[in-house]
Amino acid sequence: MPDLNQARDVAIAAANAASSVIMRYFQGEFDVELKADQTPVTVADRMAEDVIRETLLGSFPDHAIYGEERGMSHTDGTSAPDCTWLVDPIDGTKSFVKGYGMFSCQIALMRRGQLVLGVSTAPAMGEQAVAVEGRGAQLDGQTLSVSVVETIEEAAISTGNIGKLAASGRWPALGRIMAAAYTTRGYGDFYHYHRLASGQLDAVIESNLNILDIAALTVIVREAGGTVTDLAGEAVGMKTTSILAANPTLHAKLLAALNA
């Protein structure tokens, strides 16, 4: 098992190295391809993931890595490793392609099925959030704490991509929540999770995502005192496709409202 302080430092180094690669291409000229799921990918995505993999495996050669662009890799294909790194080199590639800074490099460590470390780096916006299980969360060195807002009527709620939610039976419930909320936002990607963990936003609701989008951010919000589940209240795991995140009291009220 790795020392989590060492793992944190290596993950930060990997994110910083990847960010340097990404920013060399940002707002420049590069080809854009469409993957099978019709999402874009660029040379920056692939090069950044390669740098992250090289950095992580340099310190932890026996760990597995599951990346957005290169898939799952492990030196021993016959056994399940205790530690798996979850990597999305550019979460928000569409924003990157369009030349605005709402994208981030996401790196998380899952140990024996539990998320224990997260690094979320947004190089174009100058933010880096880091969290280790049991040791709190920091944004650019400042300790993070979620808000204490306890009612929907007082809450600022942000939604990301909610296409699947809009087509589900929870859509009317979300409408009632948004109508009752103090204010609503649609920040998306890393940004509203950083704001949530900072206490500047009270809840996040999303439906169209995968574990690589949310793994690092889950640890960051949890370590800032928040509760993070899917929309049904289930724990975040490899098959998670939706998120409800807030402080514990508000989370419970939103969960009940969404599933009434």
Explain what this protein looks like in three dimensions:
By secondary structure, the protein is α+β, with helices and mostly antiparallel strands. It is 35% helix and 26% strand. The chain has eight helices and 15 strands. It has helices at residues 4-25, 43-59, 93-98, 163-166, 171-180, 189-197, 211-223, 248-258; strands at residues 32-34, 40-42, 64-67, 71-73, 83-91, 104-111, 114-122, 127-132, 137-139, 142-143, 156-159, 183-185, 203-206, 227-229, 243-246. Strand 8 and strand 9 (137-139) form a beta hairpin. Helix 6 packs parallel to helix 7 (211-223). The longest helix is centred in the first third of the chain and has 22 residues, at 4-25.
List the helices and strands and how they pair.
Layout: H1 4-25, E1 32-34, E2 40-42, H2 43-59, E3 64-67, E4 71-73, E5 83-91, H3 93-98, E6 104-111, E7 114-122, E8 127-132, E9 137-139, E10 142-143, E11 156-159, H4 163-166, H5 171-180, E12 183-185, H6 189-197, E13 203-206, H7 211-223, E14 227-229, E15 243-246, H8 248-258
Parallel strand pairs: 3-5, 11-12, 11-13
Antiparallel strand pairs: 1-2, 3-4, 5-6, 6-7, 7-8, 8-9, 9-10, 13-15, 14-15
Characteristics of this structure?
26% strand, alpha+beta, 35% helix, globular, 260 residues, single chain, eight-stranded mixed β-sheet
